[in-house]
Amino acid sequence: MAHVFIDRSNVNGSDDYKAAPTTHIYLKVSEGATFVDRTYLDRKAQARAAGAKVGGYHFAGHADPRAEADFFLSKLGTVGELRPCLDLESGQSRQWAEQFVLRCKDKLGYMPVLYGSTSFIQPMRSASATLRACPWWRAEFGPNDGQRHALTGGDLGAVAHQYTSVAHVPGISGNTDQSHILDESALLVPDGKVFKPWGVYKDGEHVRNYRRYSRALIWMARNKPRHPGHQRAIRHREDS
Prior knowledge:
By secondary structure, the chain is α/β, with parallel strands linked by helices. It folds into two domains: 4-187, Glycosidases (TIM Barrel); 197-240, no CATH class. 30% of the residues lie in helices and 22% in strands. It contains seven helices and nine strands. The chain has helices spanning 40-49, 65-76, 94-108, 118-127, 129-132, 184-187, 206-222; strands spanning 4-8, 22-31, 35-36, 53-59, 85-87, 113-117, 136-139, 158-167, 176-181. The protein is globular. Mean pLDDT is 87; it is low at 198-207 and 228-240.
């Protein structure tokens, strides 16, 4: 197994990523507007230490989509190699999804990945140029026997195919979702768009601190020192 692309969350057991042939992994960060996956940060650190390319995903709820996007980004921490992802599985509307992904684009500078089944996502994408602009990680199991099967109707623009939920991977506990990458470049964070948080603070608080830093820059521009040689410094707090 030279190439393994999986996704994991708090419902899964402990893993040994160094023992797994895992090259790409998506990890659950949050759900709805209040739930945080407490295994995310540890899994992320372990996966990156094992050399895997890592991304975080948000399981969509039914709160305000912009608020959910803000919540997700506030818990994501420093973005990994893979674009942040919206997981749509529980009946959200096309308009809900559009507002979420556009909010992410406003914050990140690029569209997030959109995950979901062929039957749920394809009708949305057909009606929305906004959602077609998101790389689609397409879930379609077919017999769900652990083997990869052909996608119905071709790839339909998908960049990855999740083909089973019962794969067995060395180092990974229990059954696991497994996917095949169709276009890795579309899953990766675009060059020059890595979202680096400002200042020194706790992982997961980058949105709030970025706003504080931006406000400080505006204040400095409006309140220039009266005497040449004087400087004003922006100080960062560890606690946000």
